Amino acid sequence: MPVAGTPGTTAPKPVSPTVPTRLRLGGIEAPVVPIGLTGSALTPPDDPRTLGWWGKRAGSRHGTTLLTGHTVHDGGGTFDDLEDTPLGRNARLSGHSYQVTSVEVISKGQLTKRAPALFAQTGRPKLVLVTCEDYDPATGHYASNVVVTLEQVQ
Questions:
Q1: How far apart are CA 45 and CA 39, in angstroms?
Q2: Domains within the chain, CATH numbers bracketed
Q3: pTM score, whole prediction
Q4: Contact predicate 147/104, CB 8 Å
Q5: Whole-angstrom distance, CA of residue 68 vs CA of residue 132
Q6: Which residues of the chain fall below pLDDT 50?
Q7: d(CA 99, CA 85)
Q8: Residue 41 has what pLDDT?
């Protein structure tokens, strides 16, 4: 069997970075749309079944591709059970492959402190998924965030 790179064979062509349009991760399959900053915060799309994208394109050689989505305390959000994502799970984002390397539930304050590193637009390529967690019915607010980090795989 010929080996890629030997005469008479062709190595697979790398996929160019693309604007993310769809995420598949386990039982999650959702459309992705671009979002921007409001002040220093990212606001997911209004539709709880659609994810918002900010940062690098899927498949970029450097930096973070960030997807944020809703958790709905009584169900119906794409990221309702994001904290249950197993380590090692594979994901596809618009033709690019990623693998889960960490799943964390952190306070909103910790997310703010860690944001420069988590969402860096330089460094190793990664995909970061973020949603809210720990709903408090007394206040109607979430106390924490789920942060899932995935490394790009070839």
A1: 16
A2: 22-153 (2.40.260.10)
A3: 0.88
A4: yes
A5: 9
A6: 1-6, 9-13
A7: 11
A8: 81
